[in-house]
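Key result, reporting period 2: structure in, sequence out.
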């Protein structure tokens, strides 16, 4: 495991931001898988904690793949009421790929507390990952009045949770949030579009929240020569705390950005040379003004959820 992690870190070495500063486009990946288990020697207790942070920095390239990044923790706890020495195991990891206009990830978290639950010592796993791409788009049109462009964001994901033992304060949960932002702030810039999926199982009851739509879109009116810095991002989190449980998140075909114009006089170019996909539903005709960007409408559309293909 140590050799694998060192090899992965070598391939994902942090690169100076200046490397991508003048290109107009970049990709980035930050992940922190953490696993912990309770160790008890009959008198004292401690937490076996393993955590790994992967931060690629902004890379001046159009794609980046992490491969499998995982950590594990092993320990044991003493149940005095039954006189049992209970083994505990925690495993967590993710496999991710980011490219301009597309973000893909699968992640898992498995925790086995052996039925030993205590609020004073937390055992379990937490797996977080943020991926993003950024590109500068220049809009072109020979229409003297400017042209309309349709931006879209699609998210397909499946989150599965299971738990055979739950007691306060235990839970298992998975979350995926995709977004599209604009401006120099990157992920923290002006939010244009977003989708979220949350599946959680707790001792107090199940909580399941799916996004209102797998695809959202917005229409913007741009003049010839106008530029816009766009950042697409995907944040995922899978966690299992104080439970015999597991959670898996499959977003292997998700956070897909699209851009098109139906005006034959219009087009666009990008700093990365990327041509974004075009298959996005039309927005509703209701108006929504977004200052400085000329947005005129927005719509969230529903369609049946489907399980994405596995990462290759």
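The corresponding designed sequence is given below.
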């Amino acid at each position: 495991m140590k050799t694998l992690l060192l090899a992965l870190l070598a391939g994902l070495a942090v690169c100076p931001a200046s490397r991508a500063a003048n290109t107009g486009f970049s990709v980035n990946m930050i992940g922190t898988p953490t696993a912990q288990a309770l160790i008890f020697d009959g008198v004292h207790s401690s937490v076996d904690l393993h955590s790994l942070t992967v931060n690629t920095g902004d890379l001046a390239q159009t794609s980046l793949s992490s491969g499998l990044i995982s950590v594990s923790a092993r320990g044991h706890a003493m149940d005095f009421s039954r006189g049992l020495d209970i083994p505990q195991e925690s495993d967590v990891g993710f496999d991710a790929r980011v490219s301009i206009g597309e973000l893909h990830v699968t992640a898992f978290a498995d925790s086995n507390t052996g039925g030993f639950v205590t609020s004073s010592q937390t055992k379990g796993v937490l797996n977080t990952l943020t991926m993003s791409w950024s590109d500068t788009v220049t809009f072109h049109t020979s229409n003297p009045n400017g042209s309309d462009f349709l931006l879209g964001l699609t998210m397909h994901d499946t989150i599965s949770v299971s738990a055979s033992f739950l007691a306060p304060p235990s839970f298992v949960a998975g979350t995926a949030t995709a977004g599209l932002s604009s401006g120099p702030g990157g992920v923290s810039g002006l939010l244009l579009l977003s989708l979220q999926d949350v599946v959680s199982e707790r001792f107090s009851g199940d909580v399941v929240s799916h996004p209102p739509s797998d695809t959202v879109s917005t229409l913007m009116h741009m003049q010839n020569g106008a530029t816009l810095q766009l950042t697409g991002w995907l944040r995922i989190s899978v966690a299992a705390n104080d439970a015999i449980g597991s959670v898996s998140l499959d977003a292997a075909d998700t956070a897909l950005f699209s851009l098109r114009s139906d005006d034959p006089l219009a087009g666009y170019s990008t700093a990365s040379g990327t041509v974004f996909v075009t298959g996005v539903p039309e927005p509703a005709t209701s108006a929504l003004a977004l200052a400085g960007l000329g947005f005129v409408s927005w719509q969230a559309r529903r369609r049946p959820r489907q399980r994405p293909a596995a990462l290759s």
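The radius of gyration is 22 Å. The longest helix spans residues 2-11. This case is discussed further under Risks and Mitigation.
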